[in-house]
């Protein structure tokens, strides 16, 4: 009997524009999606994914309006909204909706089912971004999100998605007016520091790294320090952090399962293929969703061959990396609706990145 | 006895900049490359691959200086130089040198060996670009290049690489001054028409299409007309066409072989994998080189999911497509030194493109 | 006695982001702006001003929410919202609010005062964009807006601002599904055709051109046909046209006046300086607002010297032109809050563009 | 009698491409230019002006070939070649050739005539870029160039143009391999540090700043420290510095004169207009050449209004600034052939920049 256990429903919905929620509306209309169960919505939006990407804010405004109208202001505020800008190459704009069904759907599986939980942290100050203070805020937030999912062992966590803030010229000036100096004056660069500090906060929460081993000065510098399950994404539209934990739990029910892999470089198809096989979907049948990080290696090399991403002043390296790794992953999964997010600082090894795959299993 | 038969040597050489020929110089110094046998040099250079990409001209100037100093002006002029701009994503700038060794190297293989041949066409006028005149010029040039390679059957041709001209504002104005109207006024768009007309010229030469079936108005419009073995690339630095034919011939010797595939869309890894397997290199051992075309589908879709390449006013669709398809192909081959060229108009089906793979076989 | 005559108030308000209306809210709070009198809001937003510029839609959504909350849905729908993307160079994002004060403010001036009027046209079909149908829709809309302003002579009109639609891949596909072919398949190019057809519609309404003289095929081609007072701007967020007419009328009161000039090329500072002097503000005192069009000349030349805007595949020509002409105009006016809009097809001569200047006069 | 005194000839020559020297060739053919007198060639080339701008190297290669063929390798190596990438907006690609005529041309003027001198410094190491070592190298080089021009008082110097190196990924890696850390890992940012350190070196040489007042840590940070006559430009194609000094000297003859101004911000037309008037060319008659620096203010403001240049991840701020300030200056001078160079770190106040104007006076 599964009725006292929660289960997860996941909805992958195409978006025709940053404010196009017609797909979500159709799901609600047909009863396939119950808005009151939505814990998180992840979106790939079609901006540049960098500092002046307003498609994230535009999408967030549309989603917030959608949620408020359906579940009220208070509960809408609890939904984690992580918009990742940048659908370079043939990546396709879409929403990933994570819904918690309270009175369980589906069967029990021996190794449990996909469990999800969320949390929202306090706002940080501009001068905290990219520094120890931010790491600690995120570490604590991940612990909260695990608790919300009912996941007790860090080994059962397969992916942690964090939306974190960035610096703008205005925020730097505001900090300076209070006599505070920010970690960096380059606003594009601030996105990397924020993603990096957030990833290290995740590594601390998951026990992948020891707090004593991480000095603040390591953020954005010592790329040997990294989490294998972190995915962080910076946006202009918030100053706090929104956190989503994906794991496996025997307290949850239903056919969905999650696994993860770590790409060691931008062309590490083997690692992802092994993960797909481990989950029993080598041929893509049962495939539900993929979340991955992509980045340009700082060495300027991929398996010894030079890349030009870091020296390109026309297109930022994050855009190049999303397109390229997106192509590699689409070749493996047979779909372009992939949540590939740029900037993998301290998320997997330099030039590589973590990947999570969600699949639908057949009932036992 | 193989000494009366030619064979092909192929050299894949990294380039640190558009004018970096230090790798070629080292090969000459060690005797691995005999400049007098060079038939063609293909280069991936790190510009934008579009109208104002001067890395192609820069590389061409450096290569021409290199060749003239070693084999004299006259013979240097016969070497086909095809520079394809754009190493988006982690694609790596490099040279592919095709050398014909006159007094045969290596064994005879039952199905023959890689055979290469080149030709150079007359300059066309700006107003001929993208029109029937250009198609016919290219068709005739392909026949010449096949003859040079000693390939008699069109079925033995696996790939035809053509470098073709483009329109600039100045060229359009010059034509107008003579009372002639060019096929298009958008210079970026002219690259597509030139590539398209060249590809249709190849299709005519290879008997893939019938001259009676191709109206001039089909260029850039009727994407059901295409060659399965054409790869064309436009550059500002020439007004004629430089043509390289790759095929198999029992008149040639040595371990190299070429095969081809046609990707039906931007994520058609299966087609390429089948080609690799057919050539006996499923795991990348023996892999020598890959040449491919990439493009954004005009439908705006990849397997039903929307892509944003055609609506992006910041990054041209050709750049997106090279990065994305480049990632997919690098995942399959394990290297980023791939000759992925953008703009596959009439080269494979809409959104897909032809691929050639060159491998080194073990002696029988 | 001026109380039965309307007058215009204009508010130039900085925007910190596409959805930043805090400046407008402050004006309402202090009573400086009465929302019920707003006829039009023009905005310079910080996107790329091209096809995939979602800052316009984001701003429009925020402004619509703002207006609906204050004056109700029905009246909010009548407010003309013209968002022009692109604040290249040092151009500054801002709102220009045009408010009609019913029971007149300020004195009567012998040559009248700034009069404003608006209209909204029917939606057009994708296949009507850039063609005669669109011209006629706009012509008729300008007549309506003049009537709304109480301007009876076309000679009293100094500027007509039109927001017009553009083609997206989806719209082209939709038309094709109905068996209709659009005027162009390049979505960036469709913006130019829509702006051009709209400008010719304005020229027809103002009697600058004769309907018999304009063939549909002239749109985007015969640049000798142009309006001297048209400014048109394309956006993804509408399929109709929103029209604002600026003129002088003795039926209106108050210190504001408008004049116009036509720049003959991108560096025609003299024409604008003459306009400023004619309005009595050579030194910038009394300056209120400037609206201008900028574009790259099709000849590829400015006073005989080559420009590279049309051959640049990294930055679209409209962006270059806004930055450059914006700098020229900012040098003359001493402010970067200028409504400089790109793409001046049929708006002023090739490479030039119309300019309107609004000033505050001292009472006589 | 003027025959024992040198004079300067300046040639402003359009370029149709980075390697187009046909204009120079025509001048040589007609005798208007004597190659043996060329001290320096400045070029505006049409790349992005940032790290991966190969138009500078392409132009440099073409110019070096041109010079070597005419004046021999040894003397060609002494010619200062300063290529500044970026002709944003309507700025026009062109060459500025500075020729020293040994046995004087033209009359003596009471306040002297334009005097020119050049020098080339030693190569610096990657880790010296942006640091005190680079400042000192440039300081010393400016002293040498003044001596070469026969200018004895720093007050007679009106402009110092320096071409300085930048960091690439490969150079940073090379330094790291030697155990040295570079000043910055962001290659685009390294251009700013190199320009800044070079400008401070100029300020030291001209006595504008005191060595005791400049700490290494001020480079790129304390923007209150600046030269009023420095213009520095970074390029990938050298590791040393090439220096050109422009001044006035009674030892020189001829109609040319130079003056300078300092723009306090990006719209400071008044400062440039005052300079033009001071030189007696308020209306552009007699105008020969203008050299200027442009940059985005770090405050994010121009006269209190926000600009978006520093938050734009699609177009680098240097490109925005060149386009915008270029437009302002073209409006004043009536030509788009202006040597406007981006990145004015420590060259004029934050957001502003030095300007030099060269004019042709009528004989007294």
UniProtKB/TrEMBL annotation, chains A, B, C, D:
It comes from the Bacteria. GO terms for molecular function: cyanuric acid amidohydrolase activity; metal ion binding. InterPro entries: AtzD/Barbiturase, AtzD/Barbiturase_RUA, AtzD/Barbiturase_RUB, AtzD/Barbiturase_RUC. Residues 113-250 are annotated as: RU B. Pfam families: Amido_AtzD_TrzD. Pathway: Xenobiotic degradation; atrazine degradation; biuret from cyanurate: step 1/1. The record marks 318 as: Important for substrate specificity. It catalyses: cyanurate + H2O = 1-carboxybiuret + H(+). Residues 256-364 are annotated as: RU C. Mg(2+) binds at residues 295, 344, 347-349, 352. Substrate binds at residues 56, 84-85, 195, 233-234, 322, 341-342. GO terms for biological process: atrazine catabolic process. Its EC number is 3.5.2.15. Keywords: Hydrolase, Magnesium, Metal-binding. Gene3D superfamilies: Cyanuric acid hydrolase/Barbituras, RU C (3.30.1330.160), Cyanuric acid hydrolase/Barbiturase, RU A (3.30.1330.170), Cyanuric acid hydrolase/Barbiturase, RU B (3.30.1330.180). Responsible for the hydrolysis of cyanuric acid, an intermediate formed during catabolism of s-triazine based compounds in herbicides such as atrazine and polymers such as melamine. Catalyzes the hydrolytic opening of the s-triazine ring of cyanuric acid (2,4,6-trihydroxy-s-triazine) to yield carbon dioxide and carboxybiuret, which spontaneously decarboxylates to biuret. The monomer structure is formed from three repeating units (RUs) that share the same structure as one another. The monomer, the active site and substrate all possess threefold rotational symmetry, to the extent that the active site possesses three potential Ser-Lys catalytic dyads. It is possible that any or all of the three active-site serines may act as nucleophile (albeit only one can do so per catalytic cycle). Belongs to the cyclic amide hydrolase (CyAH) family. This is Cyanuric acid amidohydrolase.
């Amino acid at each position: 009997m599964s009725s006292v256990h929660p289960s997860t429903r996941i909805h992958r919905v195409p978006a025709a524009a940053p404010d196009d929620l017609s797909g979500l509306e159709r799901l609600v209309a047909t009863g396939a999606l119950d808005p009151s169960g939505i814990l998180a919505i992840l979106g790939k939006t079609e901006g540049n994914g960098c500092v002046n990407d307003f498609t994230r804010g535009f999408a967030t405004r549309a989603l917030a309006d959608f949620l408020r109208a359906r579940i009220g202001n208070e509960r809408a505020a609890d939904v984690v909204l992580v918009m990742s800008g940048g659908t370079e190459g043939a990546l396709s704009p879409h929403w990933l909706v994570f819904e918690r069904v309270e009175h369980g759907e589906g069967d029990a599986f021996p190794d449990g089912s996909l469990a999800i939980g969320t949390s929202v942290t306090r706002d940080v100050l501009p001068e905290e971004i990219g520094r120890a203070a931010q790491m600690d805020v995120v570490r604590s937030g991940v612990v909260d999100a695990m608790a919300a999912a009912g996941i007790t062992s860090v080994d059962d966590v397969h992916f942690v998605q964090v939306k974190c803030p960035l610096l703008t010229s205005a925020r730097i000036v505001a900090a300076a007016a209070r006599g505070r100096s920010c970690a960096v004056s380059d606003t594009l660069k601030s996105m990397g520091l924020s993603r990096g500090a957030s990833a290290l906060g995740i590594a601390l929460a998951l026990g992948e790294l020891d707090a004593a081993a991480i000095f603040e000065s390591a953020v954005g510098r010592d790329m040997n320090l990294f989490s294998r399950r972190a995915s962080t994404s910076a946006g202009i539209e918030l100053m706090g952090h929104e956190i989503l934990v994906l794991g496996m739990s025997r307290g949850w029910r239903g056919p969905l399962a999650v696994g993860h892999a770590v790409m060691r470089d931008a062309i590490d198809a083997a690692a992802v293929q092994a993960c797909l096989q481990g989950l029993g979907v080598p041929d893509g049948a049962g495939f539900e969703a993929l979340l991955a990080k992509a980045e340009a290696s700082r060495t300027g090399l991929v398996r010894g061959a030079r890349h030009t991403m870091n020296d390109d002043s026309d297109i930022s390296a994050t855009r190049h990396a999303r397109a390229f790794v997106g192509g590699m992953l689409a070749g493996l999964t047979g779909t372009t609706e992939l949540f590939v997010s740029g900037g993998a600082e301290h998320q997997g090894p330099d030039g590589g990145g973590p990947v999570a795959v969600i699949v639908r299993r057949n009932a036992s």
